[in-house]
Specification:
The protein is an alpha/beta fold and about 270 residues long. It contains nine helices and eight strands. The structure holds NADP nicotinamide-adenine-dinucleotide phosphate.
Length: about 270
Protein backbone atom coordinates (compact mmCIF):
# COMPACT_ATOMS: atom_id res chain seq x y z
CA UNK A 1 0.00 0.00 0.00
CA UNK A 2 2.45 2.63 -1.15
CA UNK A 3 -0.07 5.08 -2.57
CA UNK A 4 -1.74 7.86 -0.62
CA UNK A 5 -5.11 7.19 0.94
CA UNK A 6 -7.70 9.79 1.88
CA UNK A 7 -10.13 9.12 4.71
CA UNK A 8 -13.23 11.27 4.34
CA UNK A 9 -14.66 11.23 7.88
CA UNK A 10 -12.32 9.83 10.52
CA UNK A 11 -14.77 8.56 13.14
CA UNK A 12 -15.11 5.27 15.02
CA UNK A 13 -15.29 2.92 12.07
CA UNK A 14 -12.63 4.62 9.92
CA UNK A 15 -10.33 4.57 12.94
CA UNK A 16 -10.99 0.84 13.42
CA UNK A 17 -10.18 0.15 9.76
CA UNK A 18 -7.05 2.30 9.40
CA UNK A 19 -5.32 1.90 12.77
CA UNK A 20 -4.53 -1.85 12.38
CA UNK A 21 -3.18 -1.13 8.90
CA UNK A 22 -0.88 1.51 10.36
CA UNK A 23 -0.01 -0.87 13.24
CA UNK A 24 1.08 -3.48 10.71
CA UNK A 25 3.07 -0.82 8.83
CA UNK A 26 1.19 -1.64 5.62
CA UNK A 27 0.92 2.09 5.02
CA UNK A 28 3.08 4.95 6.24
CA UNK A 29 1.27 7.60 8.37
CA UNK A 30 2.50 10.36 6.09
CA UNK A 31 0.52 8.76 3.23
CA UNK A 32 -2.76 9.01 5.15
CA UNK A 33 -4.81 12.18 4.54
CA UNK A 34 -7.97 12.54 6.53
CA UNK A 35 -10.68 15.14 6.76
CA UNK A 36 -13.18 15.73 9.57
CA UNK A 37 -15.97 18.22 10.10
CA UNK A 38 -15.31 19.91 13.43
CA UNK A 39 -12.47 21.83 15.02
CA UNK A 40 -12.87 19.54 18.04
CA UNK A 41 -12.20 16.34 16.07
CA UNK A 42 -9.35 17.98 14.20
CA UNK A 43 -7.67 18.96 17.48
CA UNK A 44 -8.40 15.57 19.04
CA UNK A 45 -6.79 13.63 16.20
CA UNK A 46 -3.79 15.98 16.02
CA UNK A 47 -3.16 15.77 19.76
CA UNK A 48 -4.22 12.23 20.64
CA UNK A 49 -4.08 9.90 17.65
CA UNK A 50 -1.14 7.55 17.99
CA UNK A 51 0.08 8.18 14.45
CA UNK A 52 1.05 11.46 12.92
CA UNK A 53 -1.28 11.43 9.92
CA UNK A 54 -2.30 14.43 7.84
CA UNK A 55 -5.60 15.81 9.07
CA UNK A 56 -7.74 18.67 7.77
CA UNK A 57 -11.02 20.34 8.50
CA UNK A 58 -13.72 19.94 5.85
CA UNK A 59 -14.20 22.89 3.49
CA UNK A 60 -10.73 24.27 4.29
CA UNK A 61 -8.49 25.13 1.36
CA UNK A 62 -5.88 22.62 2.59
CA UNK A 63 -8.39 19.75 2.68
CA UNK A 64 -8.66 19.82 -1.14
CA UNK A 65 -5.41 17.84 -1.16
CA UNK A 66 -7.43 14.67 -0.44
CA UNK A 67 -8.62 14.66 -4.04
CA UNK A 68 -5.00 14.05 -5.14
CA UNK A 69 -5.06 10.66 -3.37
CA UNK A 70 -5.84 7.79 -5.70
CA UNK A 71 -7.56 5.78 -2.95
CA UNK A 72 -10.35 7.06 -0.73
CA UNK A 73 -12.32 5.64 2.14
CA UNK A 74 -15.65 7.43 2.50
CA UNK A 75 -16.75 7.09 6.12
CA UNK A 76 -19.05 9.96 7.05
CA UNK A 77 -22.59 9.33 8.27
CA UNK A 78 -25.01 8.86 5.35
CA UNK A 79 -26.77 12.16 6.16
CA UNK A 80 -23.46 14.02 5.58
CA UNK A 81 -22.91 12.62 2.10
CA UNK A 82 -24.56 15.72 0.63
CA UNK A 83 -21.73 17.85 2.08
CA UNK A 84 -18.99 16.02 0.16
CA UNK A 85 -18.27 17.24 -3.35
CA UNK A 86 -15.73 15.73 -5.69
CA UNK A 87 -13.08 18.18 -6.92
CA UNK A 88 -13.46 19.06 -10.59
CA UNK A 89 -9.77 19.02 -11.49
CA UNK A 90 -8.85 15.43 -10.63
CA UNK A 91 -5.74 14.46 -12.59
CA UNK A 92 -5.05 10.91 -11.34
CA UNK A 93 -6.46 7.91 -13.19
CA UNK A 94 -7.97 4.73 -11.71
CA UNK A 95 -9.26 6.54 -8.63
CA UNK A 96 -10.98 4.29 -6.13
CA UNK A 97 -13.66 5.29 -3.64
CA UNK A 98 -14.62 2.73 -0.99
CA UNK A 99 -17.82 3.71 0.80
CA UNK A 100 -18.98 2.25 4.11
CA UNK A 101 -22.15 4.35 4.21
CA UNK A 102 -25.25 2.40 5.20
CA UNK A 103 -27.76 2.13 2.38
CA UNK A 104 -25.99 4.33 -0.21
CA UNK A 105 -25.98 2.49 -3.55
CA UNK A 106 -23.11 2.16 -6.01
CA UNK A 107 -25.27 3.97 -8.55
CA UNK A 108 -25.63 6.99 -6.25
CA UNK A 109 -21.92 6.94 -5.41
CA UNK A 110 -20.96 6.78 -9.08
CA UNK A 111 -23.20 9.75 -9.87
CA UNK A 112 -21.71 11.76 -7.04
CA UNK A 113 -18.10 10.76 -7.72
CA UNK A 114 -17.90 10.42 -11.52
CA UNK A 115 -14.08 10.37 -11.55
CA UNK A 116 -13.95 7.32 -9.30
CA UNK A 117 -14.61 3.63 -9.49
CA UNK A 118 -16.85 2.96 -6.51
CA UNK A 119 -17.14 0.07 -4.10
CA UNK A 120 -19.91 -0.31 -1.55
CA UNK A 121 -18.96 -1.97 1.69
CA UNK A 122 -20.97 -2.94 4.73
CA UNK A 123 -19.01 -3.62 7.88
CA UNK A 124 -20.03 -3.95 11.50
CA UNK A 125 -19.06 -2.60 14.90
CA UNK A 126 -17.06 -5.69 16.06
CA UNK A 127 -14.49 -4.52 13.48
CA UNK A 128 -13.32 -2.22 16.30
CA UNK A 129 -12.01 -5.32 18.12
CA UNK A 130 -10.82 -7.10 14.98
CA UNK A 131 -13.88 -9.38 14.82
CA UNK A 132 -15.82 -7.66 12.07
CA UNK A 133 -17.85 -8.98 9.18
CA UNK A 134 -17.47 -7.10 5.92
CA UNK A 135 -19.64 -7.43 2.82
CA UNK A 136 -18.30 -5.99 -0.43
CA UNK A 137 -20.22 -5.16 -3.61
CA UNK A 138 -18.00 -4.14 -6.52
CA UNK A 139 -18.93 -1.33 -8.86
CA UNK A 140 -18.17 -1.49 -12.56
CA UNK A 141 -14.76 -1.54 -14.24
CA UNK A 142 -12.68 -2.12 -11.14
CA UNK A 143 -9.10 -3.18 -11.71
CA UNK A 144 -7.53 -6.17 -9.98
CA UNK A 145 -5.36 -3.75 -7.96
CA UNK A 146 -8.39 -1.79 -6.79
CA UNK A 147 -10.10 -4.98 -5.61
CA UNK A 148 -6.95 -6.09 -3.85
CA UNK A 149 -6.56 -2.70 -2.15
CA UNK A 150 -10.17 -2.80 -0.92
CA UNK A 151 -9.75 -6.27 0.54
CA UNK A 152 -6.49 -5.23 2.25
CA UNK A 153 -8.37 -2.44 4.03
CA UNK A 154 -10.69 -4.90 5.75
CA UNK A 155 -8.96 -8.28 5.92
CA UNK A 156 -6.95 -7.47 9.07
CA UNK A 157 -10.03 -6.81 11.12
CA UNK A 158 -12.86 -8.77 9.56
CA UNK A 159 -14.03 -11.74 7.53
CA UNK A 160 -14.82 -10.69 4.00
CA UNK A 161 -17.84 -11.74 1.93
CA UNK A 162 -18.33 -10.64 -1.68
CA UNK A 163 -21.91 -10.04 -2.77
CA UNK A 164 -24.10 -8.83 -5.54
CA UNK A 165 -25.22 -5.39 -4.31
CA UNK A 166 -28.84 -6.60 -4.01
CA UNK A 167 -27.86 -8.62 -0.94
CA UNK A 168 -26.03 -5.86 0.94
CA UNK A 169 -29.15 -4.54 2.67
CA UNK A 170 -29.98 -7.91 4.21
CA UNK A 171 -26.29 -8.44 5.03
CA UNK A 172 -26.36 -5.08 6.81
CA UNK A 173 -29.53 -6.00 8.70
CA UNK A 174 -28.03 -9.26 9.96
CA UNK A 175 -24.51 -8.14 10.72
CA UNK A 176 -24.65 -4.40 11.36
CA UNK A 177 -28.00 -4.14 13.17
CA UNK A 178 -27.46 -7.62 14.63
CA UNK A 179 -25.09 -6.49 17.40
CA UNK A 180 -27.79 -4.19 18.82
CA UNK A 181 -30.30 -7.05 18.72
CA UNK A 182 -27.86 -9.35 20.50
CA UNK A 183 -27.12 -6.63 23.08
CA UNK A 184 -30.85 -6.30 23.72
CA UNK A 185 -31.17 -10.07 24.16
CA UNK A 186 -28.21 -10.12 26.56
CA UNK A 187 -29.74 -7.27 28.54
CA UNK A 188 -33.17 -8.90 28.69
CA UNK A 189 -31.86 -12.34 29.70
CA UNK A 190 -29.69 -10.69 32.35
CA UNK A 191 -32.78 -8.95 33.70
CA UNK A 192 -34.20 -12.45 34.07
CA UNK A 193 -31.18 -13.32 36.22
CA UNK A 194 -31.65 -10.12 38.15
CA UNK A 195 -35.28 -11.07 38.79
CA UNK A 196 -34.00 -14.33 40.29
CA UNK A 197 -31.77 -12.42 42.71
CA UNK A 198 -28.40 -12.36 40.90
CA UNK A 199 -26.45 -9.13 40.56
CA UNK A 200 -26.58 -7.26 37.26
CA UNK A 201 -22.84 -7.76 36.68
CA UNK A 202 -22.93 -11.49 37.36
CA UNK A 203 -26.10 -11.97 35.30
CA UNK A 204 -24.57 -10.26 32.27
CA UNK A 205 -21.33 -12.19 32.62
CA UNK A 206 -23.21 -15.50 32.79
CA UNK A 207 -25.35 -14.66 29.78
CA UNK A 208 -22.38 -13.61 27.66
CA UNK A 209 -20.31 -16.67 28.58
CA UNK A 210 -23.35 -18.89 27.90
CA UNK A 211 -23.75 -17.34 24.43
CA UNK A 212 -20.05 -17.73 23.62
CA UNK A 213 -20.08 -21.34 24.86
CA UNK A 214 -23.22 -22.16 22.87
CA UNK A 215 -21.81 -20.73 19.65
CA UNK A 216 -18.51 -22.58 20.16
CA UNK A 217 -20.36 -25.84 20.79
CA UNK A 218 -22.47 -25.48 17.65
CA UNK A 219 -19.41 -24.67 15.56
CA UNK A 220 -16.99 -27.23 17.03
CA UNK A 221 -19.41 -30.16 17.01
CA UNK A 222 -20.92 -29.03 13.72
CA UNK A 223 -24.42 -29.21 15.20
CA UNK A 224 -27.49 -27.73 13.59
CA UNK A 225 -29.36 -25.28 15.80
CA UNK A 226 -32.24 -27.81 16.07
CA UNK A 227 -29.82 -30.51 17.24
CA UNK A 228 -28.47 -28.18 19.92
CA UNK A 229 -31.99 -27.27 21.01
CA UNK A 230 -32.99 -30.94 21.26
CA UNK A 231 -29.83 -31.71 23.25
CA UNK A 232 -30.88 -29.45 26.10
CA UNK A 233 -34.65 -29.85 25.98
CA UNK A 234 -35.82 -32.83 28.02
CA UNK A 235 -39.46 -33.95 28.31
CA UNK A 236 -41.39 -31.90 30.84
CA UNK A 237 -38.20 -30.04 31.80
CA UNK A 238 -37.15 -26.45 32.45
CA UNK A 239 -36.00 -25.62 28.92
CA UNK A 240 -39.27 -26.59 27.23
CA UNK A 241 -41.05 -24.46 29.84
CA UNK A 242 -38.88 -21.50 28.81
CA UNK A 243 -39.31 -22.17 25.09
CA UNK A 244 -43.11 -22.39 25.44
CA UNK A 245 -43.17 -18.85 26.83
CA UNK A 246 -41.04 -17.56 23.96
CA UNK A 247 -43.24 -19.27 21.35
CA UNK A 248 -46.37 -17.83 22.99
CA UNK A 249 -44.82 -14.34 22.75
CA UNK A 250 -43.94 -14.92 19.06
CA UNK A 251 -40.25 -14.31 19.58
CA UNK A 252 -39.30 -16.06 16.32
CA UNK A 253 -41.57 -13.84 14.32
CA UNK A 254 -40.37 -10.73 16.18
CA UNK A 255 -36.73 -11.56 15.38
CA UNK A 256 -37.42 -12.41 11.72
CA UNK A 257 -39.39 -9.20 11.25
CA UNK A 258 -36.69 -7.13 12.98
CA UNK A 259 -34.18 -8.22 10.32
CA UNK A 260 -36.61 -7.69 7.44
CA UNK A 261 -37.45 -4.26 8.79
CA UNK A 262 -33.79 -3.22 9.13
CA UNK A 263 -33.17 -4.35 5.56
CA UNK A 264 -36.14 -2.28 4.28
CA UNK A 265 -34.87 0.74 6.20
CA UNK A 266 -31.44 0.36 4.61
CA UNK A 267 -33.07 0.39 1.14
CA UNK A 268 -34.96 3.57 2.07
CA UNK A 269 -31.69 5.46 2.73
CA UNK A 270 -30.77 5.33 -0.91
N1 LIG B 1 -21.39 2.73 13.83
C1 LIG B 1 -21.60 1.53 13.29
O1 LIG B 1 -22.00 0.55 13.92
C2 LIG B 1 -21.33 1.34 11.82
C3 LIG B 1 -21.09 0.06 11.36
C4 LIG B 1 -20.79 -0.09 10.03
C5 LIG B 1 -20.76 0.99 9.17
N2 LIG B 1 -21.05 2.22 9.64
C6 LIG B 1 -21.03 3.34 8.70
O2 LIG B 1 -19.81 4.00 8.91
C7 LIG B 1 -19.99 5.40 8.69
C8 LIG B 1 -19.31 6.14 9.80
O3 LIG B 1 -19.87 5.75 11.04
P1 LIG B 1 -19.14 6.10 12.41
O4 LIG B 1 -19.88 5.39 13.46
O5 LIG B 1 -17.66 5.90 12.28
O6 LIG B 1 -19.44 7.68 12.49
P2 LIG B 1 -18.72 8.82 13.34
O7 LIG B 1 -17.90 8.22 14.41
O8 LIG B 1 -19.76 9.82 13.66
O9 LIG B 1 -17.71 9.46 12.27
C9 LIG B 1 -18.15 10.28 11.21
C10 LIG B 1 -16.98 11.13 10.76
O10 LIG B 1 -17.39 11.92 9.65
C11 LIG B 1 -16.89 13.25 9.84
N3 LIG B 1 -17.64 14.19 9.02
C12 LIG B 1 -18.90 14.64 9.17
N4 LIG B 1 -19.19 15.52 8.17
C13 LIG B 1 -18.09 15.61 7.39
C14 LIG B 1 -17.76 16.35 6.22
N5 LIG B 1 -18.62 17.16 5.64
N6 LIG B 1 -16.53 16.20 5.68
C15 LIG B 1 -15.63 15.35 6.26
N7 LIG B 1 -15.88 14.63 7.37
C16 LIG B 1 -17.10 14.76 7.92
C17 LIG B 1 -17.03 13.47 11.32
O11 LIG B 1 -16.27 14.57 11.75
P3 LIG B 1 -16.63 15.29 13.16
O12 LIG B 1 -16.26 14.31 14.24
O13 LIG B 1 -15.77 16.48 13.15
O14 LIG B 1 -18.10 15.60 13.12
C18 LIG B 1 -16.48 12.11 11.83
O15 LIG B 1 -15.06 12.12 11.78
C19 LIG B 1 -21.49 5.64 8.58
O16 LIG B 1 -21.82 5.97 7.25
C20 LIG B 1 -22.14 4.36 8.98
O17 LIG B 1 -23.27 4.06 8.17
C21 LIG B 1 -21.28 2.44 10.96
Amino acid sequence: MTDKIAIIGFGNIANAIITPILDKKLIHPENVYCVVNSEKSLKHIKENYKYSINVYKSCSEDSKIIWDCKYKLLSVKPQHLKDITEADNIKTKDNLLVSILAGVSINRLTQKFPNHQCVRVVTNIPITVGKGLTGIAWGENLTKDQKQFTKKLFENTSKIYEFNEDYLDIFLALTSSGPAIIALIIEALSDGGLSGGLSKILSEELVMEMILGTVNLIKEKKLTTSELKNLVTSPGGTTIAALRVLEKKSIRSALIESIVSASHRSKEFN
